[in-house]
Amino acid sequence: MKDMLDEFRVTDAPFWRQTSDEVELFTAAWDARIPVMLKGPTGCGKTRFVEHMAWRLGRPLVTVACNEDMTASDLVGRYLLDADGTRWQDGPLTFAARHGAICYLDEVVEARQDTTVAIHPLTDDRRVLPLEKKGELLQAHPDFLIVISYNPGYQSLMKDLKQSTKQRFAAMNFTWPEGETEAEILAHEAGIDSETAGKLVEIGARSRNLKGHGLDEGVSTRMLIHAGRLIKGGIAPRAACSMALVNSITDDPDMRDALDAAVATWF
Amino acid sequence: MKDMLDEFRVTDAPFWRQTSDEVELFTAAWDARIPVMLKGPTGCGKTRFVEHMAWRLGRPLVTVACNEDMTASDLVGRYLLDADGTRWQDGPLTFAARHGAICYLDEVVEARQDTTVAIHPLTDDRRVLPLEKKGELLQAHPDFLIVISYNPGYQSLMKDLKQSTKQRFAAMNFTWPEGETEAEILAHEAGIDSETAGKLVEIGARSRNLKGHGLDEGVSTRMLIHAGRLIKGGIAPRAACSMALVNSITDDPDMRDALDAAVATWF
Amino acid sequence: MKDMLDEFRVTDAPFWRQTSDEVELFTAAWDARIPVMLKGPTGCGKTRFVEHMAWRLGRPLVTVACNEDMTASDLVGRYLLDADGTRWQDGPLTFAARHGAICYLDEVVEARQDTTVAIHPLTDDRRVLPLEKKGELLQAHPDFLIVISYNPGYQSLMKDLKQSTKQRFAAMNFTWPEGETEAEILAHEAGIDSETAGKLVEIGARSRNLKGHGLDEGVSTRMLIHAGRLIKGGIAPRAACSMALVNSITDDPDMRDALDAAVATWF
Amino acid sequence: MKDMLDEFRVTDAPFWRQTSDEVELFTAAWDARIPVMLKGPTGCGKTRFVEHMAWRLGRPLVTVACNEDMTASDLVGRYLLDADGTRWQDGPLTFAARHGAICYLDEVVEARQDTTVAIHPLTDDRRVLPLEKKGELLQAHPDFLIVISYNPGYQSLMKDLKQSTKQRFAAMNFTWPEGETEAEILAHEAGIDSETAGKLVEIGARSRNLKGHGLDEGVSTRMLIHAGRLIKGGIAPRAACSMALVNSITDDPDMRDALDAAVATWF
Amino acid sequence: MKDMLDEFRVTDAPFWRQTSDEVELFTAAWDARIPVMLKGPTGCGKTRFVEHMAWRLGRPLVTVACNEDMTASDLVGRYLLDADGTRWQDGPLTFAARHGAICYLDEVVEARQDTTVAIHPLTDDRRVLPLEKKGELLQAHPDFLIVISYNPGYQSLMKDLKQSTKQRFAAMNFTWPEGETEAEILAHEAGIDSETAGKLVEIGARSRNLKGHGLDEGVSTRMLIHAGRLIKGGIAPRAACSMALVNSITDDPDMRDALDAAVATWF
Amino acid sequence: MKDMLDEFRVTDAPFWRQTSDEVELFTAAWDARIPVMLKGPTGCGKTRFVEHMAWRLGRPLVTVACNEDMTASDLVGRYLLDADGTRWQDGPLTFAARHGAICYLDEVVEARQDTTVAIHPLTDDRRVLPLEKKGELLQAHPDFLIVISYNPGYQSLMKDLKQSTKQRFAAMNFTWPEGETEAEILAHEAGIDSETAGKLVEIGARSRNLKGHGLDEGVSTRMLIHAGRLIKGGIAPRAACSMALVNSITDDPDMRDALDAAVATWF
Question: Does A112 sit within 8 Å of B235, measured CB to CB?
Fold first, then answer.
């Protein structure tokens, strides 16, 4: 089991450019074992940040991409049928609680309510997890912490966290990195020169202004990295931007023209 | 089995500051074995109170966080496949009824109807639990009691307890602790001085006035404790309040400004 | 199996105060083996009556609290996996039909249609139960009888018994016991003096007039017994009524005031 | 297996008073092996008729009460887990097709579509039943016949037989037996004198005129038999009619008064 | 397995009266292994035609009556539990693809989308079937062909084939056989003289004019054969037509009168 | 396992006529291991293109036809019951990730959200796949790549990819091949002369202009190949076009006339 825990250790420092006091805040929450909620748009670096913090705090990281068909059993565990009858297998949440990992529930708002309610007892003062099917009351490891991510832009009447869930977390707001920081990230991740990186950042900023005016979301840092890598791979910048930024973000011909025009301004 | 019962004993006295006659009322209901319903907003101390009473009455406490995907079998029990065929495993409700624990169904209104109907025979005079799948008619232990919690603010047409369920319970209303009591709780739980605690209580009270005017719920005692702990951990009070109170309770920029202003009044 | 049947015998005479010819009617239906439907509001004594009749007729009683997630298999039976392969286990309906018990389906309108349709062949002249999964055509025991309960106030377009189900039953209407009878029941069940019992009955009657004017249901006899027991346990009458009658029946502040005022008139 | 077939034989001649050419028509359909659909209101004798014909033709009768949760597997069969692995078990339809019984699907419109579609190949010229899970193409026994019942009054947009199903059946219309015939049936089934029987028939006829004017269905012959049996058992005629006819057919006070008045005209 | 394939061979030539070039078109599609879609109203002979073609081409025919509860696993196959663990069992589609049968999906529009999507790879140029659960990529037998039937009159917004499914098939339109052809079929199938057959054909034609004016579908050839067989069996023509044509196609009294009048014109 | 990988190798070069820089773009994305989304109407060659690229890059290709009933387990894998207990079996996505194949999710928008979310971690920088049920964190093979296809014309409010999914892919737009290219494809695939091929291309173009004016989609290249093959097989061109193009694309008589007229212009 120890070995399996190692699989979840973050061995290489994930690149992180601090923009505010986010590292201090997360560390203080960690010290007080207060569950943390990371809020912000898709692709702005929430996942990267929690990986960075897991590496910095030296804790294994168990990541779960939530979805609407995930059940509480997927999270908590279940009995498997074995040659010797049934055998209990911890789900990722139980595994993390038992061995003291950080458990990161990505896009938790996508999960069904039974999944989110299952974490309530672990965020109470007693920090327990009742494994009802197993008849065990698991006391969480002292180093266990729950972190969830949440994109406020997606929340709707049907899909929102319950107040009784939200109130269990301290929350940190994330947004796109500012111009220079994002250029630095692009240059580092795509291996391009800082001039090209700067142009891509400008295109990204332009697209983010179109959010709510025909685009559901602006271009993410991740997409800018894709464009950078295609350019690095020898593709002409306009074609690279079409493929990595424009075509993947919209099917609307008008929006596509608007974005292509923005690309043409810089390349 | 005895050992497992011990897992559910509340060994350390949970901190409770009595505000009215709630201890006497609960004790009288317990003496007459009348099922109890705790009503009140999220995070006001219902769970803490039942833990306190379980400790005070010396009874083990089996807590079940209800959710809409929980089935009656999750509560009552099921057959598991074993090396020697199937083996019955009591669910938490059956376990509590058999061994004389207090069974606390937290946020029972979230559960599916089959879950709530399953408790009816245990709240009748005969106090039995028909384990239909096992063919057993379980007579509840004399010390067994059902307690449920219920947040009237959440009830809707789709999700409300049936009258035939409600009428089986005596009900106690809970609300936020009054100023001084809450400050005392904050100081005790977060380890902060009473002046800081008092300021946090004021911020909490201010937020609760915003309920129904842009906030679904006011800031809970639990959230104030989080803020206190972050302050205790060295975070500046304003940043601590942002993280623990403001960001986690609302995504609305206007409400955030209003709450930040309330924080700035005191820190 | 004989032993298990004994579990379902009603050994102590359940207290019943006859108000009309209900005992004779039920006995005649029993003699002619005509299935019986008990109609009336929640908590008015339908369950108590069927227990009383089972005791009076000397038949075991198998009670099933119906709910919308109960399947026909829960009622009829299923195969369980055993060390020697699968083993058939009778459900409560089959158990009752095979051994000649009264099978009482409480709140049958809550059940899914497959559950209600499963009882059709047992209410035909041939009184058989096809156990399709087992390939058995069970001929009901001569002493078997089906009794169902039904609250007309709850019926809606979505949840009503099918005509083809209703027509298989002779129906008896129940309502709250009249003043003196109810006082007698309260005194007997809660162990209080008849003056206190009389006051509680008055409060109950007052609340029942509010049905349809802000209350979904009036206070049931069961709730009055709860209040009586709390008073007997030393709680002040007003607090006992608040806990047992007012708080559990409504969340509406105005209705609460109205009911509290009714309580204050008598205590 | 032979023995089990005997369980499904109708040994005692079910009482049937022919009202038209129904016996000849059914016999001709049987001779030509044309599937038959019996149409008519609930409780008018469709089930009784098919039992009578099964007895007259000397064929075993397998009756299936259809419901909306019945699956095609419930009808066709499934694998059961056994000590030696899985074992196939014929469902009632397959059992009847294999051994040459009449298979009667009662209230087929309640079944899910997969159930009704499963019978299509058996009503084609080739009269086969593909047991897809077993990999067997079962050729129906020469004496096999499918009979279904269907209440046109219930059909709705959501629940109606598909045209491609209906067209596979020859259909016979049933309705309430005419006055004298019904009186004869009542006298025979309830053991009452013909005068009382006649009065009950009049009450039934009166109620059937109320269909569509406050009643969903009129009183069925079955209900009149219930009333007759209660009278035979010593219950006063008015009380017997209240219990067997009025209370079970309606919850509406006005309709109840109207029906009680009809009863009072004759008793 | 060879033996089981034989079960699916069409040994007796199904009667087919060619009305146009349908045999040549199907044969050409078969030669080019282009999947075929048969379109037309219920009971007009689509199933009969595919049986005829299977016999003519000497290929086994695997017919699947589609329904909305059929899963892709029902079509493709599944693991069964055996004494020696799990054993894979081909579904009808896989069986046909592996052994070179014609697989006929009757009323494919009734099936769930996963069922129709499962056939896509078999209708691509590569003619493969990925058995994902088995980890096998099955290359279809050279003689395998998919044929589907489809009734355009039933298609609705909810139930229609996806464009990406339709485009994989060449389609043939079917309708009722013309007068003389249908009479010939009736005489052959019901064993009646050609005069009676001619009259039935006239009645059928009259009913088909009522389609859309009170009838969902006209009387099918199959129903006319039923009527013919009842007449052949000694039933008076009017009674036979009532039973086989009128009662089974409509519950509406006016339509019934109109159809009865049409019958009376000829008999 | 190596052998099974070979099953998925594309051994014969799939015919592909390059129309733009699509091969270079895909190759660059492959070099940078950026997931690719192929956008375009049904039957325009997306599947053919990915087969061509897999062959060109020498990578095995695992194709999954997505559908709304496919679960994440169908993609990721599951435990199978074996003689020696349970045995894990990789799903197609896991198989491809483990052994370095291209995994092509065809019509991914049809899949349930849990299926699409399951691919998120594989499209992150860490390129891992958490096999939660197995307790394994699979590091993708360096040669693994995800490709998805997507038809923008089908997307609706209910069925669209989430922004957080879209942003993980670089996207390429596909449309029908231009006239001469398509004629070349037809001649090659159907074995017809270039004049006939040219006429079919004209008919295709005409039909595509009707998209949105009565047709949901225009005639695809695949359908033109069908028509060509039927002509090659000796069917008269008009009959071949009726069967392969007209009847399969529309049930509307007016549209059928319009298309038949288009056919008559050229043949």
Answer: no
E49 vs C35: CA distance, rounded Å: 53
Subunits touching B (CB < 8 Å, at least 3 pairs)? A, C
| Nearest CA among F43, F42, F47, F40 for reference residue F14 | F47
Q: E42 to chain D nearest CA, in Å?
A: 6
Give the best residue of E67, E78, E151, E245 to mutate against chain D (max D CB count within 10 A).
E67
Mean per-residue pLDDT for B9-19? 84
Render pLDDT for A211-221 as a digit per residue (tens, 0 to 9): 878 888 889 99
Range list of H helices, E67-129:
72-76, 92-99, 113-118, 120-123
Domain boundary assignment for chain E: 6-173, 179-266
Q: Report residue E245's pLDDT band, with 50, 70 and 90 as the boundaries.
A: very high
User: What residues of chain E lie within 8 A of the CB of F67, using their CB?
Assistant: 72, 113-114, 117-118
Distance from C-alpha of C35 to C-alpha of C209, rounded to nearest angstrom: 33
Q: How far apart are CA A120 and CA A129, in angstroms?
A: 9
The CA distance from C19 to C197, in Å, is 18
C-alpha span between E251 and E120 (Å, rounded): 40
Give buried/exposed letters for F192-214 (b at 16+ CB in 10 A, else e): beeebbbbbbbbbbbbbebeeee
Say whether E230 and D135 touch across the interface (CB within 8 A).
no
- Dist. CA B235–CA B228, nearest whole Å: 10
Enter the tokens of residue D10: 């109708």
* Cβ separation D37–E91 shorter than 8 A: no
Using the 8-state DSSP alphabet, how is residue C9 labeled? Answer: S
What is the DSSP secondary-structure string of F211-229? BTTTBSSPPPHHHHHHHHH
Contacts of F251 in chain E (CB under 8 A): 39, 152, 155
Q: Are D5 and D143 in contact (CB under 8 A)?
A: no
Most confident listed range (B2-11, D60-69, F257-266): F257-266
Considering only the beta carbons, identify the residue of A80, A239, A247 that sits closest to F21.
Answer: A239
Q: Do D229 and C135 touch (CB under 8 A)?
A: no
Q: How far apart are CA C191 and CA A219, in angstroms?
A: 73
The Cα C65–Cα B137 span in angstroms is: 13
- DSSP code of C158? S
Residues E123 and E169 sit within 8 Å (Cβ to Cβ): yes
- CB-based contact B114 C80, cutoff 8 Å: no
* Cβ atoms of A165 and B43 closer than 8 Å: no
Separation between Cα atoms, residue A162 and residue A113, nearest integer Å:
9
DSSP secondary-structure letter at E215?
B
Closest-CA residue of chain F to E153: F251
Report whether E12 contacts E51 (CB < 8 A): no
The beta strand positions in F155-267, using DSSP E, are 170-173
Name the CATH code of domain D6-173 (choices 3.40.50.2000, 3.40.50.300, 3.40.630.30, 3.30.1330.10): 3.40.50.300
F122-172 per-position pLDDT tens digit: 998 889 998 877 778 899 999 999 999 988 765 454 567 877 888 899 999
Nearest CA in chain F to E138: F7
Q: At what angle do helices F253-266 and F194-209 cross, to 10 degrees?
A: 150
From the candidates E76, E154, E185, E235, which should be mutated to test the interface with D, based on the most D CB atoms within 10 A? E235
How far apart (Å, rounded) are the C-alpha atoms in residues B246 and B230?
A: 14
Q: Is C195 left (phi over 0), alpha (psi -120 to 50) or beta?
A: alpha
Look up residue E140 and give its two tokens: 């279809």
Q: pLDDT tens digit string along B83-112?
A: 566 778 899 999 999 999 999 999 888 887
